[in-house]
Amino acid sequence: MPLRDHFRPPLDDMRHWEGFHATWPVMVVALLRRKLPRGYFAEPRVHSGASAEIDVATFEKDEPALPSQGTGDGAGGVTTAVWAPARPTLTLVTDLPELDEYEVRVYDSKRGRRLVAAIEIVSPANKDRPEHRRAFVAKCAALLQKLVSVTIIDLVTTRNFNLYQELLELIGQADPSLEPEPPPLYAVACRTTKQGDAWQLETWAHALTLGQPLPTLPLWVADNLAVPLELEECYAETCRVLRIP
User: Fold this and answer.
1) How confident is the model at residue 1 (pLDDT cuts 50, 70, 90)?
2) I need a surface site. Which of 54, 146, 171, 184 has the fewest CB within 10 A?
C-alpha cells in the first residue's frame, strides 16, 4: 500500500492524523505478537503532550501551618525551626515541554520485564519547536545509552526537521547518507552494541517517499537477536481498520 500524506489535504480533510497515530502502535503490537520469540512482549504507549493541571490550592488547604522558629508549643517545649532558603539566583518564565508519545515498547519478561526496544512514531508536536526536538532526541539518546534499541518513524510532511540527524548531532556523529539534504520522511532503526572493547552505534536508515511502500527494519531485542519490523504490513492494516482511502 503506498504511503499517504496524513497531514495535508485531501486526506487531512477526511481523517484526523491523531486517529492514525493512536491506532498504528496497536497494529504494530499485533504484528509483533507473531514475530517476537517466547518471553518477549510488546505494548502500545500513546500520550498526548497536553497534561492535567494540579490544583495547588487543594494541597495548600490540606497542609498544616508550620510553626515559627523559637516559639513555644503550648506545653513548655520548643517547636522545630523553619529554614528559609536564600532568594533564587535565576528566575525564568518557561514552558517545560511534555512530549507527545506514540510508541511501542518491547520487554523481555525473562529479565524482569526489562525494556529492550522502543518504536517511536514522530508527531507534529515532536518537531514544531527546538525544545520539543531536543526533548525527543534526548529521550532516544537516553534509551540507546541503556542498550534499548530505538526505531524512529517520521511521516510528518508539515515540518521538515530530521530528528534522526539531530540525534546523531547530539552524540557528536553524522550519517553521510543524509547529505546534502536530510530526507523529511524516513524510518531508521538504531542500536548500541559492543565490538571488543569499543561501543558502537549501528543504524539502518531509509528515506520514505509518498506513494511508495514502507521498508522492513530490524527490531533488535537482544544483542544477537532481531525480528523483522514490517512497517508496510502494519501500516496497510492501520489504514484498512480506519477505512483510510
Assistant:
1) confident
2) 54
Whether residue 55 is contained in a domain is answered as no
At residue 69's C-alpha, the angle toward residues 66 and 72, to 5°, is: 90
**Does residue 21 lie in a domain region?**
yes
User: pTM value?
Assistant: 0.82
Q: Torsion angle of alpha carbons 126, 50, 107, 143, nearest 10°?
A: 40
Q: Single out the residue of 153, 146, 93, 92 nearest to residue 126, CA to CA.
A: 153
Task: Report the first-to-last Cα separation within the chain, whole angstroms.
Answer: 11
Q: Is residue 175 part of a domain?
A: yes
- Are 17 and 28 in contact by the 8 Å Cβ rule? The answer is no
Q: Of residues 61 and 91, which shows the higher confidence score?
A: 91
Domain of residue 231 covers 11-48+96-241
Report the alpha-carbon distance of residue 19 to residue 244 in Å, rounded.
11
Say what the pLDDT of residue 210 is: 97
Residues 244 and 11: their CA atoms lie apart, in Å, by 8
Residue 78 resides in a domain: no
- Please give the tally of structural domains in the chain: 1
